[in-house]
Input
Amino acid sequence: MRGRIIGLDYGSKTVGVAVTDGLNLTAISLETIHREKENHLRSTYRRLNEIIAEYDIDTAVVGLPVNMDGSEGERAVRAREFANELSRRNGIEVIMQDERLTSVEASEIMSMNGIRKEKHKDRIDAVAAAIILTDYLNQHFDK
Output
């Protein structure tokens, strides 16, 4: 059986993290990793290494922030650089997944579940990572 899959929502100061269940059927929001500056990623990679080992991860799905017209800007370039470095450091397969509107969807899900707006900032990246991972699972696996 293949290992679990991690979903990542890469941002300038955070990385939202989600993982699949043991059967790779559903995505579970896990945590948000924070950092002070965008290019200070050492502790982010260290935490991701711990999660990858703990959950027996062999594949990462990283959100690709494309523009609404499908073009890629600076944020997409940075997400690809992050994904390439993650693969290099861990030897896992990394797949890029369109993440258009996932933060909007994450905010709507939290509101529908009674989470107050002031708490959204703390959780939105991890919820967005779960949406990115769910979208990937829905596109690539028969349920």
Observations:
- Strands lie at 4-10, 14-20, 27-34, 57-64, 93-98.
- The helical segments are 42-54, 74-90, 102-112, 117-140.
